Amino acid sequence: MTQQEALYKYLLRLGDNALIQSYRLSEWCSRGPILEEDLALTNIALDYIGRAQNLLQYAAAIEGKGHSADHLAYRRAEHQYYNNLITEMPRGDFAYTIVKQLFISTFEFLLYTELCHSKDEAIAGIAGKAIKEVRYHWTHSRDWCYRLGKGTAFSNDKLQQAVNDLWMYTGEQFEMGAEEEMLSAEGIAFDNKALQSKWLEMVSTVLTASNIQIPTESYMQTGGRKGVHTENMGHILAEMQYLQRAYPDATW
Amino acid sequence: MVNTSFNKKEILTLLSEIKDPEIPVVTIEEMGMLRDVIISNNGYEVLLTPTYTGCPAMGIIEQDILSTLQDAGISNAKVTMVFAPAWTTDWMSESTKEKLVQFGIAAPVHSSCVNWLSPRNVEVSCPKCGSKNTKIVAQFGSTACKALYSCNDCQEPFDYFKCH
């Protein structure tokens, strides 16, 4: 594997995580529990789609085949997507989306803080913008965890259920592939494993303050980063890629 | 052929008239989005930095830049997005902030990197009555760059331009 191939795959992984998370959040448009949350979740989705666009555009440039970010988003099958499984999980109820967002944005806060210092200037530039947005995503999900966890027995139960259901998809975020090992040795990527204890500490602090039990199960379901997805992924792409499949090369 | 009748300063003066499509009382220069103009044999390259990565106004701003230059007789221009240094509300001048307030948007009240963990501790003044007795309604408002507040004294709901 050359460094160019490693960088291409790494950018796809970062970009796919942002793209699929954006897709799931945007499903809340017009379905939010209150108007303000409808706006908040879709605003967050907008930050993610912008980040995905920047990362996939850069990935396409590194690939060097003259493709666009849209080409990478619309012309890859699910086994060519490298997003973490947690992003493709259905939006579920509001508590489920909030917990998902907490788990993901805690990881992103830690990762993008490091990527601001990447030796790859383009990655550092994208990370420098993303980190400011991630902070807002994180405080948004943290504050909702507090409210739901300390609200009623019903809302606490919903939050606990979401934490229990999503827990086994959190470990994948810290997995390292050959391309990440190679790039982090060069100071371009960062060692995801090194973020795990800090992630657990941050997440545990929020959940404990929300009167939620931290799951003890250790089994972690992984696969997305190798292109092995849950059945959700096919459904997402079937809808997202419909237009380009029905009318190849259609443009605005 | 490169149109050499415009220097960098002249181009920037032309572009400094362009308004932010979301906040039509301030220009893209006052917002700090207009970063630089590079003049080369290939023409004019305008460097623009987005406020938020997914900001949908960027496409409109790009069109506005190109059509402003077109009107001045410049066709060999392009707009390039730059991400570093990342845009920050710290680049807004006091007079720009005052324009926001006059328009009904509370201006960012502290530096971008302070207090991000406790946004609720920030004291935001109502742009209508000036009262500091305000409350946050939602961290995300009408656009990605704003939060929704309301005034406990005059009851006015208003946008707050978030620190970034």
Written overview of the protein:
The complex is a heterodimer of chains A (252) and B (164). Chain A contains eleven helices and no strands. By secondary structure, chain A is mostly helical. Chain A has a single domain, classed as Ferritin (Up-down Bundle), CATH 1.20.1260.10. Chain B has 164 residues and is α/β, with parallel strands linked by helices. Chain B folds into two domains: 8-81, Fe-S cluster assembly (FSCA) (GMP Synthetase, Chain A, domain 3, 2-Layer Sandwich), CATH 3.30.300; 90-161, no CATH class. Chain B is elongated and about 55 Å long. At the A-B interface, helix 2 and helix 6 of A face loops of B.
Global morphology of chain A: globular
Low-confidence stretches of chain B: none
Secondary structural class of chain A: mainly alpha
State the CATH topology of chain A: Ferritin
Q: Report the count of strand segments of chain A.
A: 0
CATH architecture of the largest domain in chain B: 2-Layer Sandwich
What is the overall number of helices of chain B?
A: 3
CATH H level, superfamily name of the largest domain in chain B: Fe-S cluster assembly (FSCA)
Percent of residues in helices of chain B = 10-25%
The average pLDDT value of chain A, as a whole number, equals 96
CATH class of chain A: Mainly Alpha
Tell me the major beta sheet of chain B: 4 strands, mixed
Share of residues in strands of chain B = 15-25%
What form of chain B results from the Cα inertia axes? elongated
Assembly type of the shown chains?
heterodimer
CATH H-tier superfamily of chain A: Ferritin, core subunit, four-helix bundle
Assign a percent range to the helix content of chain A: 55-70%
